[in-house]
Amino acid sequence: MDTETFLARDIEIIREKAQYDAACKKLLSEKIILAWIMKSCLEEYKDCTVDEIAEKHIEGEPSVGETPVMPDETNAAPRIHGIGGEETSLTEGTIVYDIRFIATAPATGELIRLIINVEAQGSSSTGYPLLKRAIYYCCRMISSQHGTEFVNEHYEKIKKVYSIFICTSPKKEQRNTITRYRMTEENMVGQVKAPTTDYDLLTVIMLCLGGAEDESDGILKLLSVLLSSEMGAEKKKDILQNDFDIPMTVTISEEAENMCNLSDDVWEKALTKGFEKGVVEGIEKGFEKGVVEGIEKGFEKGVVEGIEKGIEKGIEKGIVEGMINAIRGLIVNTGWSIEQAMAALSVPEADRPMYRELLQQQ
Question: What pTM was computed for the model?
Answer without folding.
Answer: 0.61
